[in-house]
Amino acid sequence: MLSLAMGMRQSFGLLQPHMIRDIGITAADFSLAIALQNVIWGATQPFVGIWADKYGTRPVALIGVGIYILGLVFLRFADATWMVTLGIGVCVGLALSCTASNIAMNITARTVSANKRGAAMGAVSAIGSLGLTLASPMAQSLITHFNWQTAVVGFLGLACVMLPAAFWGSKADGIEHEAVIGKPQSASEAITEALGHKGYRVLAIAFFVCGFQLVFITTHLPAYLDICGMDPTVGSNTLALVGLFNVLGSYLFGWLGDRYSKRMLLGGIYLLRSLALFMFFSFPPTPLTTLVFGAVLGTLWLGVVPLVSGLIIHMFGLRFMATLSGVAFMSHQVGSFLGAWGGGYIFIHFGNYDLAWKLAVAVGVVAGIFQMTMNTQASDRMRKQWAAQT
After folding, report:
1. Which domain holds residue 157?
2. Which of 112, 170, 245, 278 pairs as cysteine with 120 (C-beta 3.0–4.6 A)?
3. Is the distance from CB of 34 to CB of 221 less than 8 angstroms?
4. Residue 308 to residue 374: CA distance in whole angstroms
5. CATH assignment at residue 33
6. Counted domains in the chain
7. Within-domain flag for 247
8. b vs e for 352-373, b when ≥16 Cβ sit within 10 Å of the residue's Cβ?
9. Tens of pLDDT, residues 145-188
């Protein structure tokens, strides 16, 4: 479910040049649709998380897949800006709240013991990235041999596969979370507790940078390479490499998170991403440097997910993991909105992406430094609960 939901979502940028030529939308229109997708994903994620914590992940995931399919239908028949915005902006944004990382990590965290949780979440995040290695080349091949509409039909086929995945994966709802000592928390009390924790606030703000950097790349890299006169397959192959190397990176950082400081690993990811962006955009791209950039960025792509989830569980426990991850994810999606829409806005007004990549580098450095110094102490409630259990 996670693999296909994210794989298709990260491949929408391949459609952009063809939709601009065929239906008359602008780069800013497409960027705004992707940006809206990220805003809706972030704005609805806390509410979807509360629903999943209260009623279970199965109804959430199945409804989400249905909405994803509806969005792709709108995209397939799009002949105006509003249909593109409704399809990949509104529908896919809402569907991702129900099918992507937050719900997948919530399911995974309940299936393994605490000392193996990081590796398990890293493994699911890693396998989740394989969808990009399937969706991106498939879409580019269908575009090349047919048209972008046929590529969307291919996406619809992949979305249908998500239905049984959502149904069977959510059997984890039957697994009990940790025992509660004293009066159980409500969702609002859990959110208040988290927002009062300085470390959680730093974690959420730094998560903004993750969204800014990654969505800027997935949305604008194909267009940037097209401007540079490179073959379209370079862009699709680069996105496929991102997905492939993310398999290694996600599992690696999940495994490392069980053994070393999660905050130091998170900060290191942000700093290394910024270095990769700086090196790539400082020189004219070639097919080789672009593919190397994709491999490096892929290694640093979704390794943040098991680390962020692990820190939230450590500080506040498992009971409201989906809720608190959803609140932090709002910050991520604000960054995603600015990465998608801001990249297009800067290009329209300056004629290039120079300022956008400089901003991506700068905020990554700042986030990395703050992330490495965050407070990771468990909440007072969790420390009292541990003391009572021992």
Report:
1. 2-174+184-381
2. 112
3. no
4. 12
5. 1.20.1250.20
6. 1
7. yes
8. ebeebbebbbebbbebbebbbe
9. 888 899 999 999 999 999 888 888 766 666 665 555 556 677 88
